[in-house]
Write a structure and sequence with these properties.
heterodimer; A: alpha+beta; Heat Shock Protein 90; 2 domains; five-stranded mixed beta sheet; two-stranded antiparallel sheet; B: alpha/beta; Rossmann fold; OB fold (Dihydrolipoamide Acetyltransferase, E2P); five-stranded antiparallel beta sheet; 30% helix
Chain lengths: 355, 254
């Protein structure tokens, strides 16, 4: 409604149109209907200003009746009705002004000339209102596309940020330190296993770093990474860690952002298994349900250990990445019940071929 | 205690078997140090410390149930040299606060390990700190205890603070009442008060701290004195200062 809303150029257009309108109208009144120049100008200037006001008022009707709204006929009828009423009003006011010029200013004949032009003037007022609606719809469309662009830019920046922070958080340094300590112990106790662990760790790091460059990977690759991760953690935790997988064949080729599940497994180890003297289990369940994929990571946990809150960062990260990729098409649910901590994800299923 | 001749009894506490084996292996070249026991968690450590009376403790920090700092709170630390062994560097300051002789970061070299042993040997017989100081040190700054560790004989109980109804001062001990049971802990009531979140627990009397959620109502008792009635029916005396504290807290909550 204020200047800043429509921009300076729109105001310039309105001014220019107003001046042009006045000049054209005066010329028309003089040449076609024989009005005197002075009378025509006195009449045309307020009429032009009024016409600008009418064209401007179209803004409000346009706003309440979006061009691509539900009911197109309603929109058209509203505009036509508004155009008729406003044109009638405009000419009516014009008549009063003409009358005043005629009798008040003593320029006889003005009213007569005006009355002669009346029919055409109805047409002008009518068209001018509609021109206004076109102008405002154009402004709205321009603004909407600008906003859409900004939103797209913003969401891509956010996606990038989420991606980066996820990758930074991916390799938990303590995971590395503890693994290296295990290798340090194994070098003299069991050199062969020490070598195996070095290889597992290298594989894990290579996969992690390589995956970060891709936007999406098939589930089976993520599962491959999880298996490497668990193999390493099993060296540390031994019997205390049990891993189960239930992966439906159709789900294996479904795409997901890389390293989406790994932080959930890490949470399961750090906050679940590591907190229980007797150890526990982690279970991955993956299924495709029509157009959606459902992933569940469950782990046994000890409610008494009181570390559920610390899950926060990893979970938020996963949530942010899902949102960045799928918007509100994605769902994440984390729930602790009895002695099981469960994180369920669901988002649209895509595969390499379908893309 | 006659100088270096004395045999060292060591306890290795770590929830990872390989980590324990590594320390055991590094100790193999030191015949003067005998590994009394290996413990896979804090509970075992508390028990083993009672049985073996070690004077050297290799202690991991992050372990299931009881952390390394919890363990220290529960054992007799007289004459025990503590060496923390952990992958986390953020506990170094706290380790310093509880007068640990050294802080080994995993993975460590043999030279680093030897240096830690040297330190332990040179600091033999130094004075130790008291348990309340330890408890305070094991808590991150600005955070309140989420649970209280209590040792009764060899049994260790963890009381979540939400399950604590009230605490009563008994000389050098506090009696902690939770789920109908009483647990005795060697701590002053003021020490306990500092550890508990003041928005949840109020010192209503010189000898009592109450869990605000348990208070059903306050009744006048005699001139200038009141009683707090808990949902369990227990009545606790409320001093005048205690009543003022209680009132401001309840008004803040409203």
């Amino acid at each position: 409604m204020d200047k800043s809303n429509i921009g300076k150029s729109a105001w310039a257009v309105l001014w220019f149109a107003g001046v042009l309108f006045a000049a054209l109208m005066a010329t028309m009144l003089v040449t076609n209907w024989g009005m005197s120049w002075s009378a025509a100008l006195i009449l045309a200037v307020p009429m032009a200003a009024l016409a600008q006001g009418i064209a401007w008022s179209a803004r409000f009707t346009c706003r309440s009746h979006p061009l691509l709204g539900k009911d197109v006929w309603h929109t058209v009828l509203t505009h036509v009705a508004a155009a008729v009423v406003l044109a009638y009003l405009w000419v009516g006011i014009g008549k009063l002004v003409a009358q005043w010029i005629d009798s008040g200013l003593g320029m006889n004949g003005t009213y007569r000339h005006f009355a002669a032009a009346q029919t055409q003037l109805y047409g002008v007022g009518f068209s001018y209102y509609l021109l206004g609606t076109a102008f405002h719809y154009m402004l709205f469309a321009q603004k909407a596309s600008q906003e859409a662009q900004e939103r797209a830019l913003e969401s891509s920046v956010r996606a990038r940020e989420a991606e980066l922070s996820a990758l930074k958080a991916q390799i938990n340094p303590h995971f590395l330190y503890n693994s290296l300590n295990s290798i340090s112990a194994l070098t003299s106790i069991d050199p062969r296993r020490a070598r195996d662990m070095c290889v597992s760790l290298a594989d894990f790091l290579r996969l992690t770093l390589g995956m970060g460059e891709k936007a999406l990977i098939p589930l089976r690759e993520e599962v491959g990474l999880l298996e490497k991760y668990c193999a390493i953690e099993k060296v540390r935790f031994g019997e205390r860690l049990t891993v189960k997988e239930e992966i439906q064949e159709e789900a294996k080729e479904c795409l997901l952002p890389p390293l989406l599940l790994q932080p959930l497994f890490e949470n399961a180890v750090v906050h679940g298994i590591a907190q229980m003297p007797e150890g526990g289990w982690i279970k991955l369940h993956a299924a495709r349900n029509g157009a959606r994929i459902l992933l569940t990571v469950e782990n046994s946990w000890d409610p008494e250990a009181g570390s559920s809150r610390r899950n926060g960062v990893g979970l938020r990260n996963v949530q942010r990445r899902l949102e960045a990729r799928y918007g509100n098409e994605a769902q994440l649910q984390a729930k602790a019940e009895d002695e099981i901590f469960r994180v369920s994800l669901s988002f649209p299923a895509e595969t390499e071929k379908a893309k | 205690m006659n100088g270096g001749k004395r045999k060292w009894q060591a306890l290795i506490v770590d929830d990872e078997e390989l980590a324990r084996k590594l320390i055991r292996e590094m100790l193999a070249t030191h015949p003067e140090i005998e590994v009394a026991a290996e413990c896979g968690n804090g509970m075992e450590a508390v028990k083993a410390a009672g049985e073996h009376k070690p004077n050297l403790l290799f202690l991991d920090v992050q372990m299931p149930k009881l952390t390394g700092f919890d363990v220290l709170e529960l054992i007799d630390r007289n004459g025990v040299a503590i060496v923390f062994v952990t992958a986390f560097d953020q506990y170094a300051m706290k380790a310093f606060d509880v007068h640990a002789v050294d802080y080994l970061l995993k993975p460590f070299s043999r030279e680093r390990f030897e240096a830690a042993l040297e330190k332990a040997k040179s600091q033999e017989g130094k004075k130790v700190v008291d348990a309340a100081e330890l408890a305070a040190a094991s808590r991150p700054a600005g955070q309140y205890a989420e649970r209280i560790v209590v040792k009764d004989g060899t049994k260790v109980t963890l009381i979540g603070v939400s399950k604590l109804d009230y605490a009563e001062a008994l000389d050098d001990y506090v009696s902690l009442v939770s789920e109908g049971k009483k647990h005795l802990k060697q701590q002053t009531i003021s020490g306990l008060e500092l550890a508990l979140d003041p928005s949840l627990f109020v010192r209503i009397h010189r000898s009592y701290i109450v869990n605000l959620e348990r208070v059903v109502r306050i009744e006048p008792y005699a001139k200038d004195s009141k009683v707090a009635i808990l949902n369990s029916g227990v009545k606790l005396p409320v001093s005048r200062a205690g009543y003022a504290r209680l009132k401001t807290l309840l008004e803040d909550k409203r």
